[in-house]
Amino acid sequence: MAFLELKGVEKFFGEQRAIKGIDLTIEKGEFVVFVGPSGCGKSTLLRLIAGLEAVNGGSISLEGRDITSLPSSKRDLAMVFQSYALYPHMTVYDNMSFALMLAKVDPATIREKVEKVAKILNLEPYLKRTPKELSGGQRQRVAIGRAIVRSPKVFLFDEPLSNLDAALRGQTRVEIAKLHRELGATTIYVTHDQVEAMTLAHRVVVLRDGRVEQVGTPLELYYRPNSQFVAQFIGTPQMNMVSGPDVAQFSTGLDVPVPPGGFIGLRPESLTLGAPGSGQLRARVELVEALGAETLVYVSTESGTQLVARQNNARDLPRVGDAVGVQVDRSTAHLFDSQGKVVAAPAR
Amino acid sequence: MSAPKPPLTPALLARTLAAWVVTLVIFFPLGWLVLTAFKTELQAISVPPLLFFTPTLENFTEVQARSDYLLYAMNSLITSVVSTLLGLAIAAPAAYSMAFFRSKWTRDVLMWMLSTKMMPAVGALVPIYVLAQTAGLLDTRLALIIVFTLSNLPIMVWMLYSAFKDIPHEILEAARMDGATLWQEFRRVLLPLAMGGLFSTGLLCLVLAWNEAFWSLNLSSAKAGTLAALIASYSSPEGLFWAKLSCASFMAIAPIVVFGWFSQKQLVQGLTFGAVK
Predict the structure, then answer these.
(1) Which residues 6+ apart lie within 8 Å of A79 measured at CB?
(2) What's the complex ipTM?
(3) Distance of alpha carbon B27 from alpha carbon B2, whole angstroms
């Protein structure tokens, strides 16, 4: 039996159908990430699970119990909000103990639990402060602490890192992953950042226009995307899409023919740049981004297709304006039909 | 460190003078009222008017003796305080639902509520008088409390609505996720956060109810009359007694002026809700 199960969940905002019949099962202890571009419905789906929005169709059950129309306060879920949503008039200690106090847990137990969590999150020196006396990172930790103290059935995170600066974001991401390993709690995490999705998730749910586009482990999504959308959403820089006249140049030697109007998808690492005339295509370098360990080279083919290649050697880099030959590793090509559905994917 | 004084230009001089003139024009009637309160009746009507005289307190003893100032003051106090508290108790949940559970009608409901304030009160005089009469509530504090509460309700809902709207919705959602019931969410999170707004709304309505004259004059007299009724009783039938009328007015407005003076910061804050982010 699934721990958390969504069956045909629908949500309308007025006339607009925001969530279009979502089926999803989440196992106990799993770390699931909802990812997708803005407006895809990922936050709405989380809020439906939280009970902060009313479900218009379908059902949600937790441990076999139907919670579709149960109020948030009775679902035993904890949520970390993007804006942290700490209680500004309460101290850090009161913020973290609020839920337990409402649940009428005895004060000694509350103290013990709050202090234990404060220790895990390095919040001990700040327990008497109010949220406005804390930095953004500390507030974020209080918000996480407030959720952990309760030991809820499921943790819900709504883009919790998007208000932090890049360095802190990376650091907090690692802390969240570590916390999940220690606590083993079922977690649903919403983000638009695919790096967070790839690094944190056991399973990633890619959403698009209120529908589930694909569900899978991070590497499944990376290596076997079932649509052009997922292929281009997962991975930075984006997967290259070759279409139009260039398709013919690439398609010789492929096991499966490219359907009419279709695309060939190539990860930046499957392109190698060489001297002009080498490889299958001729191109001109438009931009070189040297990132240290690797370099991204943006080129434009004779027919105008933009491609990006990931080069690992820092030496012999082409310069902007240079003519180059593009060598393609055909075994790594993804084939999509004109609708963006996958036709063939590389064997791994 | 103080800012350097701006040079005295003719324009600045003109503006300063204009400001003083306007201030004096506004203040004059009130100042004159206070002066007259300390005059004898004869001094009060003397021509040319007296600016310097020996002040007397006889008006105060006379007003208290003739018409029991304390009873009227108590009526004013009870009706304004109770109607304010009652109004807050009704307006706060209304404003809560409008601020946090908006529907497409919310805006219209708010406008409609405010529009009732645009109607002249006298338009509702007859029905309300008849209702009060039928219910046996004429000249009772209860009638005044009900009318004051209802007439201030639109303003209270509007002010609290603006105050609540400044509170991020997510904080209330966090409370819900933490297991708070509706009442706990209201009592432990919303009200403490909106304390400033509640306070200034209460203050303003207290002042409005205290100053209310139309309904107190029409629905009450000797038993439940407020200070407004006291002042009015010194005008017409027995001829005009300027000194006593001024004295009664002075005694009626003094408490609320002192009160307003000490709470002006909250009052201004309340009136400019949502005006500046």
Answers:
(1) A46, A50, A147, A155, A156, A157, A158, B173, B174, B177
(2) 0.85
(3) 30
Rounded distance, CA B274 to CA A162, Å? 27
Give which of A253, A291, A293, A295 is closest to A272, Cα–Cα: A295
Please state, rounded to an integer, the average pLDDT across all residues of chain B: 87
In this structure, how many other beta carbons lie within 10 angstroms of the beta carbon of residue A326?
24
Residue B97 φ then ψ, to 5°: -70, -35
Contact by Cβ (8 Å): A143, A162: no
DSSP-assigned states of every residue in B146-192: HHHHHHHHHHHHHHHHHHHHTS-HHHHHHHHHTT--HHHIIIIIIHH
Which residues sit opposite B152 in a β-bridge? none
Helix (H) or strand (E) holding B182: helix B182-184
Task: Give the predicted TM-score (pTM) of the model.
Answer: 0.81
* Residue A56 DSSP label: -
Q: Work out the minimum CA distance from A343 to partner chain B, whole angstroms.
A: 44
- Chain A hits for B184, Cβ within 8 Å: 102
Instruction: Specify the amino acid at residue B194.
Output: A
Q: Report the C-alpha gap between A56 and A15 in whole angstroms.
A: 12
Whether residue A73 and residue B171 make contact (CB cut-off 8 A), yes or no, is: no
What is the C-alpha R_g of chain A?
24
CA gap A345, A225 in Å, rounded: 8
pLDDT tens column, A64-110: 999 999 999 999 999 999 999 999 999 999 999 999 999 999 999 99
Percent of chain B whose predicted confidence (pLDDT) is above 90: 40
The CA distance from A230 to A209, in Å, is 13
Taken in order A250, A251, A252, A254, is the CA torsion positive or negative? Answer: positive
Task: List the beta strands (DSSP E) in A89-194.
Answer: 154-158, 186-191
A-B CB pairs within 8 A amount to 61
SS3 percent helix, strand, coil of chain B, rounded to 5, is: 75, 0, 25
Q: Tell me, yes or no, if B97 comes closer than 8 A to chain A by beta carbon.
A: no
